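pasting for the record
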Amino acid sequence: MSSKDARKQTLEHDAFARFAQDANLCLVAGSLKSCLPPAPDIMVNIEGLGWRAFELGDINSSTRHRVMSDMDNAPWLMNAYYQDLPSRQKAAFEAKYAGTWITLSFNDNKSPNGKKVVGFKRAIPELFDWLTQLPDDFHGEAFEHIDRTVSIEDKVNAIKKIEARRQRFYWLSQLRVARVDSHSAPKFKANGGGNAIRVDVRPLEDKLANRYVSDVPMELLLTIKHGMLVYDDELANLKLIVAESLDTSSFERVWLHATMSRQALLLGKRNAV
């Protein structure tokens, strides 16, 4: 097994164990194992139910996947850029931001049509330029900072630049500086800028249409990562899709697991189950 496959298997097993805990399913110790197609992804022995095979699915939207990727990568990418600055620039940046946490808040906004935009990785030099231009003792929200001492005309121009920045860096909600102490090097972190998300129903529809083979009863587990399902119309729509296709699918039950809110919801089951 390649290291990539081993990591994928470990992540799947860990995610399923968290789901089982939230769904109050007691797993027989040592029974969880991975399977190859056409079988579902994993097989496990559940106390009171016996052996079950679970196909795993992810219904995060494509924009949410982008947010999760940016969240995961932002701290080390920002730190790597900072560490690679020319010595004089690095020293000046460290002197300005010693003892700070610099936090990027990402959002689920879609790219505005017809606008000049740039992705996070390409924007890192500009983010550092903004930070470099701020006052030495600055703290707070850097994205919308306006120097209050300038003229009205300059303030108007600054507001226009902020609006253009909002369009260009549509994925960034905030760039916040918090001063913690006065000695340590600056540190970088990221968050999702919001937990209420829209989902993509296509993986659910595809998996209900696909054919799977197993000697034990099969179930489908859908996951929402780094968020929670709060829109009533979406939950009703997911249940409707399941109700319309479950009897002709390979599955006896369909589950939804929202990892952040620790919700494990049964979206549907066959009448005989």
